[in-house]
Specification:
The complex is a heterodimer.
Chain A (H helix, E strand, L loop, with lengths): L28 H28 L3 H8 L2 H34 L5 H7 L2 H4 L2 H12 L6 H6 L8 H26 L3 H8 L4 H30 L2 H6 L10 H10 L3 H34 L2
Helix pairs in contact in A: 1-13, 3-8, 3-10, 6-8, 8-10, 9-10, 10-13, 12-13
Chain B lengths: L16 H28 L4 H8 L2 H34 L5 H9 L6 H12 L6 H6 L8 H11 L2 H14 L2 H8 L4 H30 L2 H6 L10 H10 L3 H29 L9
Helix pairs in contact in B: 1-13, 2-13, 3-7, 3-8, 3-10, 3-12, 5-7, 8-10, 9-10, 10-13, 12-13
The chains are: A mainly alpha, B mainly alpha.
Chain lengths: ~290, ~280
């Protein structure tokens, strides 16, 4: 974090002043901070604060009635369940993908590395219609899966699939830099001491990667909970069975039931805050591990 | 990623496991990421290239494309200026509340686009905080272009700042201090010293921001009002055509967005090669 580096020569107090303007050589503190604070207040804080205010104005009894209604509870179950399934899939697949990118040289590695970011670059609505086309009854994968009796589109599995698609890069991109730092020496040492490949992986490699993996997992999970565009096309959107929480909030807006929409949206916002705190804690832990090799 | 360092010959890199692991990963990637993209191309061109071009030339689709471009032209510069300002303040100075400000700047990444859209509705909507004031002055923000711009600005706010903050911290203040000592004033220092130093990182953030602006769906679907040919952005238009059972038209519009996404990845890869930076999309 320290930007001291070359600038922290002991000649003067450089660019560390809190706004008194003395001893600051780098210009533009007031202007840049002014723009940032103005923007943060108007664009970021005002809307979220208003949402919380509208939710709070509901009163505890009404608020509780909305957020604990059977339909809302069912939507939490659907969302959390699908997000958990998607994150589990991405934990295994994302780990393997990052591992292959860092450890192996093979034709197409660069292309594969670029493709990992596609779910970030592709609009979620496009991902949604494309996945639905593939997994619909007569789609490329939907038809053979249907013959096996597996339905994906318009089921919770479809929701999980859409979530997995959009959140994959979080796990890969969080693991990749840590894997790159992990040189083969520790593994060689373990091998010299007589450990087998499986032992080395589970007792040596995995423990080093766990903090980064957890950070990626919590980022991906948070993204799954908030996903909307990719999910609504493939979800079927039936109340109580395939309706995610974001869609329920959307429907309440369409019905002009603004208080209910506000209450549900605050539940989503609160969950996002909690996951943000968890992610930061895990990342701080990961950083501490990096410092003590 | 770091193309300089060859992949490590680690313990797991020997014997049969290597080709099997690579094969499985490539297969799953082809199924999970490759197939949806291929499906967009196949579906869009299923009735021929002419049909796809015709459906893109429909007035409503053209209007949606223009609206999306308009939103990008407004939002990307706003978030670029904000990103530079935020990175300058946060990376080059120490002040009380700096970490809190950093957290606030990154907050939109953690908030569901639906929550963002609903929040904006409560500020600028008819029954919202400024609703009566806006109505009295005959100003329309919700279900119109300004609302779409505001909600998109929120969702894409952190992109430029998040690329620049680590970069500026890494570079330190040395160059700017030298410039100032030699008598350069603020803007000279910025345009002749800082900007050349951060240009690739800045471009990277701008490209990612642009892709996300063009693709934003959830927040915009709350604030746009979905008026055909007027407040429908291209992703919303994909949904509209899709639910109209005009699959070929929907996928033709989706193909335009897919091509933008592929172009974004291409530019991003080139930029990574130029800067030799690691490939984390959010330069962690």
């Amino acid at each position: 974090m320290g930007m001291g580096g070359a600038g922290a020569l002991p000649r003067r107090r450089l660019s560390t002043a809190g706004g008194k303007g003395q001893g600051r050589v780098v210009p533009g503190f007031r202007l840049s901070l002014g723009i940032t604070l103005f923007y943060a207040a108007i664009i970021i804080c005002l809307p979220l604060a208003t949402l919380i205010l509208v939710g709070a104005r509901l009163g505890p009894a009404d608020y509780w009635a909305v957020v604990s209604s059977p339909r809302a509870l069912a939507s939490y179950r659907v969302t959390l369940g699908a997000a958990a399934l998607a994150t589990m899939f991405n934990t295994v697949y994302g780990f393997a993908l990052a591992w292959v990118l860092v450890r192996y040289e093979f034709p197409g590695r660069r292309v594969l590395d670029a493709i990992v970011d596609l779910p970030f670059a592709l609009p979620t609505a496009v991902a949604g219609v494309a996945l639905t086309a593939i997994f619909a009854k007569n789609g490329w994968f939907g038809e053979p899966l249907g013959a096996l009796g597996i339905k994906v589109a318009y089921t919770p599995i479809g929701i999980a699939l859409a979530m997995a698609f959009t959140s994959l890069p979080f796990i890969v991109r969080t693991l990749q830099p840590v894997m790159e730092e992990l040189d083969g020496e520790i593994e060689e040492a373990a091998r010299t001491l007589g450990a087998g490949t499986v032992t080395i992986f589970f007792r040596v490699v995995l423990p080093i990667l766990v903090p980064a993996l957890l950070a990626g997992v919590s980022l991906a999970f948070a993204r799954c909970l908030g996903e909307f565009g990719a999910v609504i096309f493939i979800a079927g959107n039936q109340p109580y069975s395939t309706e995610i929480t974001a869609l329920l909030a959307f429907i309440r807006i369409e019905e002009y039931d603004y208080p209910a929409a506000a209450a549900i949206a605050t539940v989503m916002l609160g969950t996002a805050f909690v996951l943000l705190v968890v992610t930061n804690a895990v990342q701080a832990l990961a950083r501490r591990h990096e410092l003590a090799p | 990623m770091s193309q300089a360092s060859p992949p490590l010959a680690g313990a797991a890199g020997r014997g049969w496991s290597r080709p099997v692991v690579i094969g499985i990963v490539l297969l799953v990637t082809a199924l999970v990421i490759g197939a949806p993209v291929a499906a967009v191309f196949v579906q869009a061109l299923s009735q021929g290239v002419g049909y796809a071009l015709d459906s893109l030339a429909q007035p409503d689709t053209r209007a949606a494309i223009w609206l999306s471009i308009t939103v990008a032209i407004v939002v990307v510069p706003i978030n670029t200026v904000f990103g530079i300002a935020a990175a300058w303040a946060i990376a080059k100075f120490r002040f009380p509340g700096r970490k809190l400000l950093l957290a606030i700047v990154e907050l939109p990444f953690s908030v569901s686009p639906i929550v963002a859209g609903i929040s904006y509705l409560f500020v600028y909507g008819g029954q919202g905080l400024f609703g009566p004031f806006l109505e009295a002055h005959d100003l329309k923000i919700m279900f119109a272009l300004p609302g779409i711009i505001l909600a998109t600005t929120f969702v894409t706010a952190p992109f430029v700042a998040r690329e620049l903050i680590p970069l500026m911290q890494l570079q330190g203040n040395g160059d700017e201090e030298v410039a100032a000592t030699l008598g350069a004033h603020g803007w000279q220092t910025f345009f002749r010293v800082t900007l050349p130093n951060i240009r690739w990182g800045l471009l990277y953030g701008v490209v990612l921001c642009n892709a996300r602006v063009l693709g934003e769906f959830g927040a915009v679907s709350i604030v746009s009002g979905n008026i055909r040919g007027e407040t429908n952005t291209l992703p919303l238009h994909v949904e509209l055509l899709y639910h109209d059972y005009n699959a070929a038209g929907a996928f033709a519009a989706a193909l335009v967005l897919t091509l933008v996404a592929l172009l974004t990845l291409f530019v991003k890869t080139i930029l990574e090669r130029v800067t030799g930076s690691a490939g984390a999309l959010h330069g962690s």
